[in-house]
Design goal:
- It is built from five helices and four strands.
- It has a four-stranded antiparallel sheet.
- It is elongated.
């Protein structure tokens, strides 16, 4: 029983010591922020300047021997050519039963897609935008199962 009491006392003492140390660090950090940490920054800068002088100014920023940063790549500074305008997909060519590959060839990449598995069968839903009209294509097992919104494209 005595050992248990001693153990509890040690645990409480250690916790108090650790928390006191944390409080001291936080107080010091808050104190430095309230008074401004600028003097410490100046001291570090001065120390680094003195180190550079002691080395005779031979500290180098890169292997090339110059302290100047490397110039930016001229290829990176050139602007990329504008992308060609995106042509709307040919949604009138869509029919049920076509494969996923045929769908991508005829209509292109969908504006949005979701994939899921239902009874171990892959089900994909593709959405295509043609102006204000949205066409939803559902593929089941890699083949077009249903198409909705296509009548709006035909009326357009």
């Amino acid at each position: 029983m005595f050992r248990l009491l001693v153990l509890q006392a040690l645990i409480l003492t250690a916790a108090t010591t650790v928390l006191s140390g944390q409080a001291a660090v936080q107080y010091g950090a808050a104190s430095a922020l309230s008074k401004g940490a600028a003097p410490a920054g100046k001291a570090v800068t001065g120390t680094l300047d003195q180190l550079d002088k002691a080395l005779g100014g031979k500290a180098q920023a890169s292997e090339s021997g110059s302290k100047q940063p490397a110039p930016a790549s001229t290829a990176a500074s050139k602007l990329a050519p504008p992308e060609p305008p995106v042509t709307p997909p040919n949604l009138t060519a869509l029919v049920t039963g076509m494969t996923r590959a045929e769908l991508i060839v005829k209509a292109g990449k969908p504006s949005m897609s979701i994939s899921s598995v239902d009874d171990s069968i892959l089900v994909e839903t593709f959405w295509y935008k043609d102006g204000e009209v949205t066409v939803k294509v559902i593929l089941t097992g890699g083949k077009v199962d249903s198409i909705s919104g296509l009548e709006k494209v035909a009326a357009k």
